[in-house]
Write a structure and sequence with these properties.
There is one protein chain. The chain is of the alpha/beta class. The chain is 42% helix and 23% strand. The protein contains 8 helices and 14 strands. Strands 2-1-3-6-7 form a 5-stranded parallel sheet, with helices on both faces. It has a 4-stranded antiparallel sheet with strand order 8-9-10-11, with helices on one face. Helix 6 packs across helix 7. The longest helix has 20 residues. About 2% of the residues have low confidence.
C-alpha cells in the first residue's frame, strides 16, 4: 500500500501509538510535533491523509486546516482533526474549513483506523468514477476537478461542501434527512449534531447565489434539491 499519512501531534505518547498502529495497517507514516514541521512536510511531499491536532505548541491546527483547504493543489487532501476539546464550536469551525472528520481524545485507535480507511476508500471510489460533469440549469459541477460554476462563474467550495452539493444534486427530487446526509457525506454514522448539516446548507446556499434557492428545506424531515430547474 503506497498511501502515506502525516501525523501532526505534539503529545509523544499519542504520536508513537498512532505511528505504530497505523503503520501496522500497511500505511507509510510520517509524524511531526508542530505546525512548522507539518508545513515543511506538506510543502515537500504529497499525503493521502493528514491527522491534525488542534492544540499545538506553535499555533492552532485550525489555521493549518484553513491554509491547506485554500491551496488549490492541496485542498483535496483529507484531514482528520484530533483534539482534547469536546466543543461544538470547534467541530463546526473545523467542518466549515473543510475537515473530513473530527475525533475527540481519548479515542479508540481501532475506530480511528476504521475512519481513516473509510475516508481513503471514498477517495479511491471518486477516482474510479467515469462521470465528469453534473449539469442543472445554470449550475455546472466538474466532478474530476472539483469545480463548481454558476452562470459560468466559478464558486469556491470546501471539499465537504462539494460532496454535500453532489449528494443533493445526484438525488435531486428526493428528500434526505440530516442523519442520512451526515452518514452519506461523511462516509459513516458521524457523532455530529444535525445543526452542523444546517450550517453547511446555509453556507452552500449563500455561495450558490441564484442557484441556492433549489436547495429546499422540508420542515421536520430534512433537505432536497429541486427535481428540475
Amino acid at each position: 500500500m503506497s498511501q502515506k499519512i502525516l501525523i501532526i501531534e505534539d503529545e509523544p505518547d499519542i504520536r508513537k501509538t498512532l505511528e505504530y498502529n497505523i503503520s501496522r495497517e500497511g500505511y507509510k507514516v510520517v509524524s511531526v510535533s508542530s505546525l512548522s514541521e507539518g508545513k515543511e512536510q506538506i510543502n515537500s511531499s504529497d499525503f493521502s491523509l493528514i491527522l491534525l491536532d488542534l492544540m499545538l505548541p506553535d499555533g492552532s491546527g485550525l489555521d493549518l486546516c484553513r491554509e491547506i483547504k485554500s491551496d488549490k493543489d492541496k485542498s483535496s487532501t483529507p484531514i482528520i482533526i484530533l483534539t482534547a476539546k469536546d466543543d461544538e464550536v470547534d467541530k463546526v469551525v473545523g467542518f466549515e474549513l473543510g475537515a473530513d472528520d473530527y475525533v475527540t481524545k481519548p479515542f479508540s485507535i481501532r475506530e480511528l483506523i476504521l475512519r481513516i480507511k473509510a475516508i481513503l476508500k471514498r477517495g479511491e471510489s471518486k477516482k474510479e468514477t467515469l462521470e465528469v460533469q453534473r449539469q442543472f440549469g445554470e449550475l455546472t459541477m466538474d466532478i474530476d476537478s472539483h469545480e463548481v460554476f454558476v452562470n459560468s462563474e466559478q464558486i469556491i467550495l470546501t471539499a465537504l461542501e462539494f460532496r454535500l452539493l453532489r449528494q443533493l444534486v445526484d438525488r435531486r427530487g428526493r428528500v434526505q434527512s440530516r442523519e442520512q446526509l451526515l452518514s452519506d457525506v461523511w462516509g459513516y454514522s458521524a457523532e455530529v449534531t444535525t445543526r452542523t448539516v444546517d450550517t453547511h446548507i446555509k453556507r452552500l446556499r449563500e455561495k450558490l447565489g441564484t442557484m441556492g434557492k433549489y436547495v429546499q428545506t422540508i420542515r421536520g424531515v430534512g433537505y432536497k434539491f429541486s427535481r428540475t430547474p
